[in-house]
Amino acid sequence: MTANWTSLDTELARWAEAGLTLPLWWRDDDAVRPTAALDRLAALSAKLGLPVHLAVIPAQATPELAAYCAANPQLVPVVHGWAHQNNAPAGEKKAEFGAPRPAQTTLADARQGLETLQALFGNALRPMFVPPWNRIGQDTVQGLAGLGYSALSTFKPREAAGAAPGLIQINTHLDPIAWKTTRSLVPPQELILQVARQLADRREGRADNGEPYGILTHHLVHDAAIWHFTEALAARLLAGPARAWVFDERTGDEPT
Length: 256
Fold this sequence. Notes:
This protein is α/β, with parallel strands linked by helices. It contains seven helices and ten strands. About 35% of the residues lie in helices and about 15% in strands. A hairpin with a 7-residue loop joins β9 and β10. The protein is globular.
């Protein structure tokens, strides 16, 4: 079935009438090495002109991935936890960085993640911390800036621009994967309506349009439907009010 984009097109027209601009960014999680799926991600990023913040798992990252990113500068490496290991108690939602682990332990892992990827990627690495499963304890958040991080990224609209002193919050807002059911694409009409609502909230002042609007993907598990929708959505936004955004640790943001 062909998706009906009318609700989003109507909202984008309202943005145009209001002269608004949408900062748009893309985060893709769980990279460790070059794969055919990463080839497809890099090609799509280049085609769209929308860089991908590649959340790399430090404990598993390979030198080959660093070389691949150097050859494909539209892939922007950031830190995805340490080992992507669930440390939550049985019966609780998955998390690597949170209770019952003490902050001293989680911050040691966060430090190791940053140092490991700095050694691999050098200056190409952006000091953004992306906790696996988008969950992190507040005591850990408070210590990230002291390790050298300058941004934190989780999921859903941020409550404030600062996650902690010296640490900007830049979240993602749309995940097209139906993780709890088919693990394929969420029904596209639901996604289109969700984006339209989120953009209306920004236009009408109920959400912070200073926060870049984030598309979250996981290239290693995409099927054709997920790839197709991601491309169609990003292209539609970029043809309208969206402008590509890349995190820059020096200024907090970098329009491209």
